[in-house]
Amino acid sequence: MDQTYSYRKKDGVTALQEGANRGRLQVTVLTEDGAKPVENAVVRISYTGVPDSVLEELKTDSSGQTPVLELAAPPLEYSMEPSEEQPYAEYTVQIRAEGYEPEEIAGTEILPDVLAQQPVRLRPSSAGEFERIVIGPHTLFGDYPPKEPEAEVKPVDETGEIVLSRVVIPEYVVVHDGPVNDAQAKNYYQRYKDYIKNVACSEIYATWPADTIRANVLAIMSFTLNRVYTEWYRNKGYDFTITSSTAYDHKWIYGRNLFDSISRIVDELFENYLSRPDVRQPILTQYCDGKMSQCLDRGWMTQWGSKELGDQGFSVIEILRYFYGNDMYINVAEEISGIPASWPGYNLDTGSVGPKVRQIQEQLNVIAEAYPALPSIAADGIYGEKTKEAVRKFQSVFGLPSTGIVDYPTWYEIQEIYVAVSRIAELN
User: Fold this and answer.
1) Which CATH number fits the domain that encloses residue 408?
2) Is the domain of 29 the same as that of 110?
3) Do 188 and 78 reside in the same domain of the chain?
4) Would residue 326 count as lying in a domain?
5) Is residue 7 over pLDDT 50?
6) Number of separate domains in the chain
7) Radius of gyration over alpha carbons of the chain, in Å?
8) In 3-state terms, the chain is what percent helix, strand and coil (to 5)?
């Protein structure tokens, strides 16, 4: 099987070129710490498997971003039902920038009608190391071990294991990139939201109905927060939060691209998890694909089954309760770690005044020091047109709807970027 495009009847590149389906790609190049954009990086795009045949060559702007490219993709129907045909095209992204080591990412996935976002972090040239990242197959297309069943609620009182006193959204999770006992596998610190986005993009298709995506994201988040809450692996003597093995946890793929439709839903829901009555811990919501492996008899969700329900118009909670039972409900974490201030509970828009507006203005000004495309504004506590424009520009740079309104996702994205930028400023 051609792992590049997997078209059975003809060469994959030819098939893509002949097809009318198009996906979109934007590359964002940052420094190794993720705090600053890299301007004027040269980005070359080619078909994976044909790296010397460059389709596009672009440069990043002051926000470290390339223009959005349209690229050939397989037919939409390949990702809408189980198929032997690979539903995404694979591209290779090569990046070079003065003062940094070059990098190559092979296997960036492009789906039709969806924006793929490829983040890149460059090491300084003093590192002396060229990095080549190979993105493995999507779990719905590749061959991965099925989940080993576990109890969905951990009997912590019986075992005496230490657990957290309340459900907290962590700032970071530590991902062990391999099976539990693989001592050679690397551990990676990942922002919680980035980890959830990566897993969701690795395990479901971004072309699916929005409520199907929401149901799967909630299951991924609840499972992850169960690992955090029970300190599952740390209580067994390991120094990580979760693994990247599908036999134990979720598939997380180092360096992979994200999809806009999934990212926005994670931004919308990241404070949530799944609960049952009288159970304090987030539920370990296990699932399987429903085609290559079956799990309905275990009371688990099937990914393809959730897609079928989404097609039928089932809501998020209806999808979840269809699989997990009618006593499953959506809960909200008690605390979010690593942010200066929690969401005030209302949008900030033209005419808003007060300390929350001033705080956002001050944070945007700090971010603007690292991102020159963002304008500096007066921190006067009044949400005028200049503040609205600064918010709109921030949203455009960080992949949010450019409304100019500080809504829930925008508030938390500002908090996270502000923390990242200010930490690096303190170190320098």
Assistant:
1) 1.10.101
2) yes
3) no
4) yes
5) no
6) 3
7) 22
8) 30, 20, 45
First to last CA, the chain: 50
Would residue 293 count as lying in a domain?
A: yes
Name the phi and psi angles at 41, rounded to 5: -70, 140
> Do 380 and 358 form a contact (C-beta atoms < 8 A)?
yes
The reply to whether 317 falls in a domain is yes
Is the domain of 66 the same as that of 102? Answer: yes
Phi, psi of 239 (to 5 degrees): -105, 35
Q: Does residue 28 contact residue 58 with C-beta atoms inside 8 Å?
A: no
Query: In this predicted model, what pLDDT tens digit does every residue of 177-193 receive, in sequence order?
Result: 999 999 999 999 999 99
| Domain containing residue 189 | 156-336
| Helix axes of 210-229 and 260-269: crossing angle, nearest 10 degrees | 50
- Treating both helix axes as pointing N-terminal to C-terminal, what angle do 210-229 and 192-203 enclose, rounded to 10 degrees? 130
- Name beta bridge partners: 91: 47, 108
Angle, helix 408-427 to helix 260-269, in steps of 10 degrees: 90
289-319: buried (b, 16+ CB within 10 Å) or exposed (e) per residue?
bbeeeebeeeebbbbbbbbebbeeebebbeb
CA distance 131 to 102: 7
| 400 contacts 413 by C-beta, under 8 angstroms | yes
Whether residues 321 and 248 share a domain: the answer is yes
Query: Do 37 and 126 share a domain, yes or no?
Result: yes
Half-sphere exposure of 247 toward its Cβ, with a 13 Å CA cutoff? 8
Task: Kindly give, in sequence order, each residue whose CB lies less than 8 Å from that of residue 241, ignoring residues fewer than 6 positions away.
Answer: 170, 173, 174, 175, 224, 227, 228, 233, 234
User: 128 with 165, same domain?
Assistant: no
Using one digit for the tens of pLDDT, what is the confidence trace for 37-88?
999 999 999 999 887 789 999 999 999 999 999 999 999 999 999 999 999 9
162 and 118 in a common domain? no
Looking at the structure, do residues 61 and 165 belong to the same domain, yes or no? no
Residue written as token pair 């005419």: 351
Asked if 343 contacts 316 with a C-beta cutoff of 8 angstroms, the reply is no
Structural domain includes residue 115: yes
pTM equals 0.92
